[in-house]
């Protein structure tokens, strides 16, 4: 997935243009994209998820490797 598509997805989630999305939005986006399962436990650090973090999760590795890497 290229950066412009990822940016478009993030912009749809960040409709208020805060520069971050909530952890719930982030997790739901990853589930929708098939990058995590409903059972997978992701840690919420209490901060919003920035575009850079979002891009890194959906762009760097194939989906199966990302899901595996988050479990480590």
Give structural notes.
- The chain has 72 residues and is mostly helical.
- The chain has helices spanning 3-13, 23-32, 51-59, 63-71, and strands spanning 20-21, 49-50.
- A two-stranded antiparallel sheet has the order 1-2.
- Helix 1 (3-13) crosses helix 3.
- The model has no long low-confidence stretch (mean pLDDT 79).
- It comes from Bos taurus.
- Residues 1-36 form the EF-hand domain.
- This is EF-hand calcium binding domain 10.
- InterPro entries: EF-hand-dom_pair, EF_EFCAB10_C, EF_hand_dom, EFC10.
In short:
This protein has 72 residues and is mainly alpha-helical. It is built from four helices and two strands.
List keywords for this structure.
2 strands; 54% helix; mainly alpha; 4 helices; globular; 72 residues; single chain; EF-hand calcium binding domain 10; two-stranded antiparallel ribbon
What structural class is derived from the secondary structure elements? mainly alpha
Query: What is the C-alpha radius of gyration, as a whole number of Å?
Result: 12 Å
**Strand count:** 2
Listing every helix as H and every strand as E from the N terminus to the C terminus, the arrangement reads HEHEHH
Any idea what the shape is? globular
Number of helices: 4
Describe the oligomeric state of these chains in a short phrase.
single chain
């Amino acid at each position: 997935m290229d950066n412009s598509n990822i940016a478009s997805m993030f912009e749809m989630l960040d409709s208020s243009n805060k520069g971050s999305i909530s952890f719930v939005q982030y997790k739901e986006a990853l589930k929708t994209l098939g990058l995590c399962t409903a059972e997978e436990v992701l840690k919420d650090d209490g901060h919003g998820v920035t575009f850079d973090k979002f891009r890194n999760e959906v762009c760097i590795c194939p989906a199966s490797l990302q899901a595996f890497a988050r479990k480590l």
